[in-house]
Amino acid sequence: FPFRLKVNGWGQLRHTASDVALPNTDLNQFQMKRARLILSGNAFLPDLTYFTQFDGRSSSGDDMRLLDFYLSYDIGHSQFGFEKGTFGFRAGKYKMPFTMARWLSGKEFEFSDRSVASTYFDVNRSLAVGLFGESKHTAIPIEWETAIFNGFVTGGAETGSSGNLDDNFAYSIRLQGYPIGDWGDSQLADFESHDRLAMRVGCAFAGTTISRNGSTEFNTPRVVDSGQTFASILPLAVDSYHVSQFALDASLKWRGWSSTMEYYFRNLSDFEGAGIPSLLDHGFWFQLGYFVVPEKLQVLTRWSRVDGDSGTLGASDQSTDEVGAGLAWYLRGNRAKIVTDVTRLDGAPINSSALDVNPGDRGWLFRTQMQFSF
Amino acid sequence: FPFRLKVNGWGQLRHTASDVALPNTDLNQFQMKRARLILSGNAFLPDLTYFTQFDGRSSSGDDMRLLDFYLSYDIGHSQFGFEKGTFGFRAGKYKMPFTMARWLSGKEFEFSDRSVASTYFDVNRSLAVGLFGESKHTAIPIEWETAIFNGFVTGGAETGSSGNLDDNFAYSIRLQGYPIGDWGDSQLADFESHDRLAMRVGCAFAGTTISRNGSTEFNTPRVVDSGQTFASILPLAVDSYHVSQFALDASLKWRGWSSTMEYYFRNLSDFEGAGIPSLLDHGFWFQLGYFVVPEKLQVLTRWSRVDGDSGTLGASDQSTDEVGAGLAWYLRGNRAKIVTDVTRLDGAPINSSALDVNPGDRGWLFRTQMQFSF
Amino acid sequence: FPFRLKVNGWGQLRHTASDVALPNTDLNQFQMKRARLILSGNAFLPDLTYFTQFDGRSSSGDDMRLLDFYLSYDIGHSQFGFEKGTFGFRAGKYKMPFTMARWLSGKEFEFSDRSVASTYFDVNRSLAVGLFGESKHTAIPIEWETAIFNGFVTGGAETGSSGNLDDNFAYSIRLQGYPIGDWGDSQLADFESHDRLAMRVGCAFAGTTISRNGSTEFNTPRVVDSGQTFASILPLAVDSYHVSQFALDASLKWRGWSSTMEYYFRNLSDFEGAGIPSLLDHGFWFQLGYFVVPEKLQVLTRWSRVDGDSGTLGASDQSTDEVGAGLAWYLRGNRAKIVTDVTRLDGAPINSSALDVNPGDRGWLFRTQMQFSF
């Protein structure tokens, strides 16, 4: 019978303490960072799968949110007898294909959470239709996905006339390949203790036009290094502008070492209503982990940086850095683990409740996180 | 063992584009119109059933809502040995018995969504206690349901002292019969390709008194044809008034044809505090579908109209029309289908995020919707 | 296989009518007081259990909330081979160990809901880490639990920098023993028709420092007998103060009789910024139930009182009382029951949507509640 339902859940309980310069305020509290419930399976056909994910994150009160709700149809396998996953269609609400950092499940992070840079350049979820596929038997195994969607970071936004989205769609594409070695199941950490080097590389593009009348989208982009919204420094005469974002990433696993680097570019251009030059921000995160005790205890370090002229409307470049170090203790791989990390911020350009980082944060951030799944 | 739990889900992903006259704004976006998760079953006794339905509609952000949560007890079968469904009791939050359009599940629509007229006269969900029953073996099989509840369109409202409901209950009743032929499972479309005509008819009543101190209920009714709230044009001296609504409906199925008509009346009267005459609005929706390819491809057309003197406090009649046409392609009946329709609006009298229709909308509405269930 | 998932649900549909003195307003409505869905089980190990509870209470609209989400690990059994429950660790969002009234499940109440006094001194849920245990084979069987958490009544609050919690933790402990007889499964009512007296006693402590910059916590405490927030009468110069709360309780069951008494103390002290003396409030609830028809029909009576000098900043004592009587009809024990009760209020010192009681309420409250579970 072609119906199947799987119930899963996982959570992250975090203690966050921060010591940041005024006027920003310190935190010392427990938080439920992710409280996920997942219903997935297939319906009617083995090639028609659904995925539903709820979240009860405590940094947005105790309301449950519908994080993901999408349908995938494996056209290649169902209609043409191709191998599974070769070519499919997806529709619903899900993570847009763009950065590797967002593509990663929160369960697979080595640190407690994503980096500042990957949050700055994030596209996150949206309502979308898209295509995806992979080729396993080519010289370099490749996966790809593309989507057309409502806009950058519009996943939790109200749609319809009561919402505030502009009427421009966004589009994105991501390609990912495995040029060297057998990558294994783990997305980041080298649980497999690779004897031979394994490598994953990716590249991606996302673009959209943002109009002032879609205030949700218009107020999302921020600038380096103040972390103010771009909308707040833009002349009122500007009605719309174009955003193009690029991402390049490479990850390695070798003998307990795991190294990941992702580089981002954001180009703001075609300002309607005022003479503003093209603005370019760029940044990266670089992360290094090593299993001191194989599969159990990992030491971590990370550097993330955002640099660009968006905060001065092109007059000069500004930059901000994040450096961190941590320890991860895996009781049952990524299904039960404890991570503790410390981060030094030098004026954060983001406003992220997930990261516990506010615009302009300068100082220290201490996070300890328990993760478990069922 | 007398416990049973069934898990179901279904969703509608819609693309909406609109082209309406100023000052209303155009839409072009993907929306998750319905993202439902249903837990149902029985507990303790085969005749004691529960129904729980969650929704994650994206036009109200990404919060999950508890749409339905009720208990039904089949008194007739359990206590008197009658046939199942003969006579029962229901309590909780659910769709109040009134219009046929609301009684229909969203899965069974032929068009993407309900008509403007059925939204204008809608009573929707509430917290209620009620009775229901049916008689299958009479000359004309009949179903009926009645309820006493908090008020019209109060299903999503806050209750308790923090909410804003008045202290008047509402009450309603609906009767439905099948005078000709064997209706079949499908609520609207003629999936059964009836050789002989099948007919369903219904009638209903709903009434309540609305007081100014219950601002949720007081601000719900709207007037034809501006779509303003009735509260906004009512003299401040009016403290309360009475609403009586009537509905009559008839549906046919024959050789792939499906025809549905529902007529509504709304009488506003007994205004306390100012001399306002009784106001009468009336309207209808009429829908015609035909399977060009049996069970697969259906062509659709619809006309809905609201007419009345509420918008002028009795001075004169005004009216507004909605006409639409569409195509429905059923992959697996109502469990997997794609609908595309176009609607011409002539000044809408409603504010509906479900329909993507705003007060005063004049122009075109294009909707394309994928529906699937598991 | 060490994975297990259990799905449960239960609900309370209540009719509330109140007749209170102006300026407070009367209610007459149906409410969904508790609409719970529970997913629980264990993962990886028999001693690692999870508990997830959702709520769709209609007095906060129709949004679903994540009420509980926690993990318990039975360290004693898993690591040291002790009997199950001897010693464990818990982390997540759950009810803090403090009053017996809060420790009780809402399913086990004899009246429709908790008393005014137990709401006044409530600590409720929070995000926490804690320890728990029991000793079954001592002369007096004992259970205990302790926790460190974000603050009093912070369970539904936003955390992170967008929230408004201060950076002081709270801590609490509760001890419970069974000095006489075999208590049985039911938490309050004497379903077991004890031939010999059974007794349960408990004591508890909770403490924290509350700072003005954590506005969520700062605005929670209320004063007797006006029910105003303590924050509203406190001089603006006060930046923080300390709260210590104590609770003592004793419950009896004997031949269909059930008697419960819990006494509370709240000491506010160490006011920073202004010379305010220590303030002491105290209060109790006392409840008596008797099964007129064993296991089926129970008559109930309750008295709850809050007394203290918080409302006058130490100048004089004020007090307020609640007296109530009711009838409980158990169809299937606490899994299906109907309760009706009437309460006389004499100026309520709380603001509780669960109880339908507002600050200053003087008058009558009539509640009738259906409860069922699956």
Tags for this model:
homotrimer; 374 residues; mainly beta; Porin; 16-stranded antiparallel β-barrel; 17 strands; 6% helix; globular
Describe the structure.
With 374 residues, chain A is mostly beta strands. Helix content of chain A is 6%, strand content 53%. Chain A has five helices and 17 strands. Chain A has helices at residues 75-80, 100-103, 116-120, 215-218, 230-233; strands spanning 4-20, 28-42, 48-55, 59-62, 65-73, 87-95, 125-135, 142-149, 170-180, 198-211, 240-254, 257-272, 279-293, 297-308, 318-330, 336-346, 362-373. Chain A has a 16-stranded antiparallel beta barrel with strand order 1-2-3-5-6-7-8-9-10-11-12-13-14-15-16-17. Chains in contact: A-B, A-C, B-C. Chains A and B meet through strand 2, strand 3, strand 5, strand 6 and strand 7 of A and strand 1, strand 2, strand 4 and strand 17 of B.
CATH topology group of chain A = Porin
State the order of secondary-structure elements of chain A, H for helix, E for strand: EEEEEHEHHEEEEHHEEEEEEE
The assigned structural class of chain A equals mainly beta
Distance between the termini of chain A: 25 Å
Count, helices of chain A: 5
How would a textbook summarize the main sheet of chain A?
16 strands, antiparallel, barrel
CATH architecture of chain A: Beta Barrel
Describe the strand arrangement of the main beta sheet of chain A, using strand numbers: 1-2-3-5-6-7-8-9-10-11-12-13-14-15-16-17
User: Stretches of chain A where pLDDT falls below 50 for ≥5 residues?
Assistant: none
**Assembly form of the protein:** homotrimer
Biggest protein-protein contact in the assembly: A-B, 41 and 36 residues
Assess the beta-strand content of chain A as a share of residues. over 45%
Q: Give the proportion of residues in helices of chain A.
A: under 10%
Q: What's the CATH class of chain A, please?
A: Mainly Beta
Shape summary of chain A: globular
In CATH, the homologous superfamily of chain A goes by the name: Porin
Mean pLDDT of chain A: 93
Rg of chain A (C-alpha, Å): 21 Å
Number of strands of chain A: 17
Number of domains of chain A: 1
